[in-house]
Amino acid sequence: MMAIPASRLDLRPYIREHDRILLGQGTAEPRTLTQVLMAQAGDLPACRVFLGPTYSETFSPDAPEHLTFESYGAIGKAARLARAGRLEIYPTHFSALAEAIASRRLPVDGVMLPLRPSPDGRGYNLGIGRDIALMAARQARYVLAEISPWLPLCHGGEIDDDLPLAALVEAEYPPIELPQQVPDETEQAVARNVAAIIPDGAVLQIGVGALPAAVLSALKHHRDLGFHSGAAIDGLVDLAESGALTNRRKERDTGISVAGLLLGSRRLYDYADRNPAIRLAGPEVTHAAQYIAGLSRFHAINSALAVDLTGQVAAEEVDGRYVGAVGGQGDFTRAAALSPGGRSIIALPSTTRSGESRIVPRASVITTARSDVDTVVTEHGVAELRYCSLNERVRRMIAIAAPEWREPLARAWRDGKSVIED
Q1: Cβ(28)–Cβ(114) under 8 Å?
Q2: What is the spatial distance between Cα 308 and Cα 396, in angstroms, rounded to a whole number?
């Protein structure tokens, strides 16, 4: 099939009333196609657009009302859709979302994604994102793709000519880049505390942002680390170049870093291009507890908006506003518990930028249950919670809170209050 200029693409023959259209997420957003979608939205029937983390300016709260935006979280620019009441959120584990799409319990009618031709001219390569996009594309009625010469050729991204490709357009934009964020002193201190409890040979799962970047930087003097995660960031390149990341001790995918999506800059894309040391995989690998359980020393390192005194993790809402996601945190936390020598770590600064405590008496919206959390880390230390009673958990959590908040937290717990009163 020959690619056509985007100006010649008319979406009306493909999109039907009430269709759900899933887009390549994050840096794998096919911006040429999504720009066409928004430009033609006024002429399309009522339909649903399923987003993941969003880092472009494509989607505005001012979009036509008959366009419904859906997601599993409010990450990046998707948060402004949530603030405007334009985002329907599915609070579900990423593995469950993937299974629902694969089984068509959450049916997807159309998919938009970026591709590049395979070197041999047979089939295509997904470039920087496999995750749920390919799974959805195999179930969809139609796939609209843009052919991009800027995408890397990634191992694991190869697909045959078996997708229901309805149209190909020429990409007009390179992939979105997320330059590595610079951690502040507090984030660096948290990262040092995390690094201190990670052994050589550990397999890492990590999120996106300044704190995960700081953790990877703090691990440069470790040896034989592995990587298995939903997303890879620029810090992965630094870790590999330092010699700390070898994947040598992984029982599965030995010698290979595995991720569903590259969330970084051109530096990461160039590193991944034709590199046999990194592979894209779908959620049936990246987020599957039974698959991860075959990896020893799997360390899930995630963050949160707040953690309460008993270890309950809040990663979705702030003051009633949805700003995060359930995502893969629960998947990776449970997988770490099944991994021999594994550990689940929740890492966060002890206070917000305005000075409020992120260690709270009781979490109101719980993303990860206290029964699944074993270690919480702030810049003030490490709270080992596994096999601890509630009172012991409270004591350990207060010890890693900001000093000025320790007495108010202890008083709130004694008084049975869910908030700290001035």
Answers
A1: yes
A2: 11
Q: Is residue 420 over pLDDT 80?
A: no
Write the burial class of residue 87 (CB in 10 Å: 0-12 exposed, 13-18 middle, 19+ buried): buried
Question: Is residue 180 scored above 90 in pLDDT?
Answer: no
In this predicted structure, what is the pLDDT of residue 98? 95
Cross-strand pairs, 280? 259
Q: In this structure, which topology does domain 185-414 adopt according to CATH?
A: Glutaconate Coenzyme A-transferase (3.40.1080)
CATH number of 10-170, picked from 3.40.50.300, 3.40.1080.10, 3.90.420.10, 3.40.50.2300: 3.40.1080.10
d(CA 84, CA 224): 46
Bridge partner list, 307: 313, 359
> What is the side-by-side order of every strand in the sheet holding 306-308?
313-314, 306-308, 359-360
Q: Residue range 157-164: average pLDDT?
A: 83
Residue 47 pairs in a beta bridge with 67
Where does the chain hold its CATH 3.40.1080.10 domain(s)?
A: 10-170
In the chain, which segments carry CATH 3.40.1080.20? 185-414
What does the block give as tokens for 415?
């008084």
